[in-house]
Amino acid sequence: MFSITVKLMKKSAKMLIPAGIAILIGTAFIATTFLFSNTMNDSLVRQQTAIYAGADAMVLTDLPEHPTDAQSDEAYSRTVADYHLDRIRTVDGVEGVRAVTATNIRLSNGNHHATGYAINTGETNLLPVTVIRGDRPVDNREVALPEHVAEQLDVHVGDVVHVSRGNTADSQGSAGGIEARVTGLTDDPNNVYAYDGGASILSEDLMAFANGVADFNQVNATSIYLDLDTRTDTASIKRLLPRYSRLVNRAEADRLAVESLSSNGTSVVTTFLLSFGVLAMLVAALVIANTFQVLVAQRRRTLALLRTIGATKQQLYASVIIEATVLGLMASVLGVALGIGLMAALCASGIMASTGMDARLVLSWQVFAVPMVFGLAMTILASLSSARSATAVTPLEALRPMELTDTRRAGVLRGVIATLLIVCGMAFAGFAAWQMHASLTGHESLVKDHYVVVLLTAIGGCAAVFLGLVIAAVFWLPLLMHGVGSLVALAGPSATVANANIQKNPRRVAATGAALLIGVTLVATIATGAASAKQTMGEALASRYSVDMIATGTDMTDEQATKAAETKGIAASAYMPTTVMTTTTEDKKGLTVLVAGVEHAADLRKVMKANIGGASVDNNHVLLPKHDADSGKGLRFNNSGITLEPVSDGTADAVGSSLTLAPEQVDYRRVSADYDAVAFVNNSYFANGDLTATGHMLLMRVDNDAAGTTLNDVLTNVRNAFSSSDGVMVSGPIAERSMWETMINGMMALLVGLIAVAVLIALVGVANTLSLSVIERTRESATLRAIGMTRGQLRRSLAVEALLLSLVSGVVGVLLGTVFGWLGSYMVFSLYGNVVFPFDWAGNGLMLGIAALAALIASIAPARRAVSVPPVVALAEA
């Protein structure tokens, strides 16, 4: 029977190709997922262990399983002195020891500024970064800089650079820094500090200064690395270590680093990606099932002849299973090979290296076993129904005319199950939405204490509805296509033929449409959720801020402010001097206030979205907000007057004098989130010397409808205007909105790209369905040609058939996805503000356009086959 099966496969090779492609794509996706996970794990392990450099041993924190606050404080507040480095160096066999300290620093050289991450110096083999030019720092205020930082600062080995503390408040600028000599340039070959773009090396006195202490021994240290030889007395070292410390060798440290990766997200990433691989394989199963159903239908006469000459039902059943096994095995092997090839090309291209990941191809047994087992299993499962159909063939059918059209009616049980799923799913989703509405309107709700349960109920409800619709597709999808096709049939004979043909095999039409429906619905859900997220968060951020964009800084210049104000997309701006002061509320709560000077209240009205009414900024009043910028709680001040007190910037005595003014409160919010409140006084106080400006602020109103520019462009251009000043910070809802939209767009692109695999397989299914239909309708196509239908009309009929299959399923998927996206947005984003329910016309239109184009392309090969045989030959063959 095996030889007969192989011969049948060879005869039907062209029909098996689409199913094989579907399996190949799905298994390649799964194999690539494992390869990507292996590469990421390998890169992270090497990156995580590379921080130990050439150390033979290191000291790790070793707290009890449930440490007290006091134990944690003691373990994580250790200083260099606590490790007794001088005494450890005297232990026999210790070749070197380095305390592990780090900090953020700010660097400047004239008008050039940079920020960076810095580690302390030590023996060369204990440093995780290498010095590629010059020497490592030793003492006397020396620093080695990453090569790109040196270029940014325009300094070379031997030059002097200004170093200040990285956590210095913006109001301090570069004050309090010290000069340091550049002794060398560093490189980070193992991407230990990829996130920070490399690391500088500081001499011990510079590290002490950067940490704000007088001596290096007072710097907080997280660990020590040791260079040991084989005769080292480790017991003597352990006796010198502080409490809650453990000395481990390099092998143990590497093992612990590998174990830590199981909780750093790589396994989550693998599971996340594999879920889309499983989705792709499920869609592929629908394509495979279609293929085998038609194969069995086409071979009914052959199978009947086999029964006539003695083949048993079990042998026919086994024949179909063998065919599925061979197809699944061959396609899975090719899929794994394709996945390995794609990942090898990706690693070799350097694309992953540009993201900071040192990528190399890492093979594992999962790369080969899991995709092949899954591909083989899905192929066999998809063929079981067809195998059962093969056993129903009787010997007498060898004498009957071959009828390929599947007229079987869908079972009642399928309808009952689908109905129950849809009804229960709608009930769950409705219950979750009702609970969320009750919570938002202040009524008793499960959301308060069981939000996750309510959210999962909504997700489960949507999943049940969708699954029910997919199961019931054999009932409603052919009817829907018949209704749409009846309208399309009015366009001419080609459309009439297409509408008639698409009704001949409703089960296959339903399976093909369901495959496409799955992918389109998921894409539309994600696109709708992303659009809702961006608009909802945009409105929520706008309601929290009174100004679109704010730039504050100690070294902001008039020229920079003018350049920023003239940026395309900035509709209005107000530039003002600022100083930091303190005051108290009516209930004696102290506030840190950024005081800004303005000429007139009209300057604020043109940039603020808040209604400041008839408020004025004169010599007797100070304009204050009604709410705390951070907590949102109401602020109340003594109406008889408040006193604004100057504060020290940490490097000198307080500048300016105190000022007592009558408060006037207006409901403007969150002008700057860095202070409890922003107050406005008349600019004359800065002009006459009562207040001394320690910085400036530029308030900007953005024109959201400015032609030819996006919010991200406006933000980027404004930041570029201040690029020569390291102390200027640009913030506001536009900045946060840009960050949100960038993150959402990135996530959406990733998810849509992953789901596109399933859509691609579904479109392969469209091509498969058309090909099978052409093969089935050889006599019909010949008859149509014989009675006068042209080649072009026959091609158009298949194109219309493909469009009906793809667009009807696509439109239903878009509508379902939009509803699911709206519900998901309501359940998630209601917590942040008033939810916007958009319809993503552009995204959905593009998706349907791509589906239509792909369907037309899919119809080319079947149409060529249909018109390639002359009518007389086709009739003779039929």
UniProtKB/TrEMBL annotation:
Domain ABC3 transporter permease C-terminal: 275-392, 754-871
Transmembrane segment boundaries: 16-36, 272-296, 316-343, 363-384, 412-434, 454-477, 509-531, 747-775, 798-829, 841-861
Signal peptide (UniProt feature, chain positions): none
A Pfam family that the UniProt record links to this protein: MacB_PCD
Topology relative to the membrane: Multi-pass membrane protein
Domain of life: Bacteria
Family assignment from sequence similarity: Belongs to the ABC-4 integral membrane protein family.
Protein name, as recorded: ABC transporter permease
The species this protein was found in: Bifidobacterium cebidarum
